[in-house]
Amino acid sequence: MPKNEPLRRSMAYVQFLAQLEEIKLLLAQGYSKKLIHERLTGKKHISMAYVTFCQIMQKKIQTGAPSVPKDHLQKEILW
């Protein structure tokens, strides 16, 4: 896909779902949405705009802390 071509919303959603467990884990560890987006785009796991990421996140992850098992909170994610 050319770099300047916008990502289809359905493909952005697929990318989001593929990274959902990592997103929930990072949220539970206290990372901001902005830092999570920067991390995932830097690792080329997602290619959506930050605004799209936030829109999907608002729909998929309701307000409040995400439910992540406590044993996953101990897992450290290296930058």
Structure, briefly:
This protein has 79 residues and is mainly α.
Distance between the termini: 27 Å
- Describe the global form: globular
Quaternary structure classification: single chain
Q: Pairing-aware structural class of the strands and helices?
A: mainly alpha
Strand residue content: under 5%
Order of helices and strands: HHHHH
Low-confidence stretches: none
What does this structure look like?
The chain is mainly alpha-helical and 79 residues long. The chain contains five helices and no strands. Helix 1 crosses helix 4 (50-60). The longest helix has 11 residues, at 50-60. The model has no long low-confidence stretch (mean pLDDT 81).
Task: Describe the SSE topology.
Layout: H1 9-18, H2 20-28, H3 33-42, H4 50-60, H5 70-73
Which key terms come to mind for this protein?
mainly alpha, 5 helices, globular
